[in-house]
What we know:
Layout: E1 3-8, H1 15-28, E2 33-37, H2 45-54, H3 65-89, E3 92-96, H4 99-109, H5 117-129, E4 137-142, H6 145-158, H7 171-187, E5 193-197, H8 204-212
Parallel strand pairs: 1-3, 1-4, 2-3, 4-5
Amino acid sequence: MGRLVVIEGLDGAGKRTLTDSLTKALHDAGATVTTLAFPRYGRDVHADLVREALHHEHGDLGASVYGMALLYALDRRDAADVIRAGLDLHDIVLLDRYVASNAAYGAARLRQDARGEFVRWVRELEIDRFGLPVPAAQLLLRVSPGVAAARAEHRARSENGRAKDAFESDDGLQSRCAGVYDQLAAEGWLSPWKVLDGTERFDAAGLAQELAAENLP
């Protein structure tokens, strides 16, 4: 049975870059790895509804914190068998976003903290009711909201069809979300967390060896 490892962080934190570099380093260390990114835009109807709502389609759906969170959760529920199959076949299943993203962003939108009702609701929905696999470890790629916003802006300008969505455009939301992520990591929500500085170069090879040897955190 493989280990489920999740990369979390703000929009623009560099999760995709970390996923790519860590995947290569894991392969170099002799581990088998498969990756998956959430939301699964273009692959799951719930994810596509999320994207459309974040770009102000579907009336007031985007304004509903619980409604949007349910769509995110349904995307993961529909991917649960894929995750389990990956765990059966590989040493590491590496996810770009998972349940903690739903908890952090929803709580931030409601101006709650990590011990609030919304975070409890997400756990009950996705882990207890939907039965999603629990991560073995979570990596928080921490950057300041300002750095994340600048990176998201650059990505929006440089990538076709990648205009900033309602969450990425809300600087206050990003700042509050960063605070919730820090709380989730400090409390070891769902699993142990390791915090990485997203503004500095890190030792991907060393991190991969820790993951492959099940020494993280």
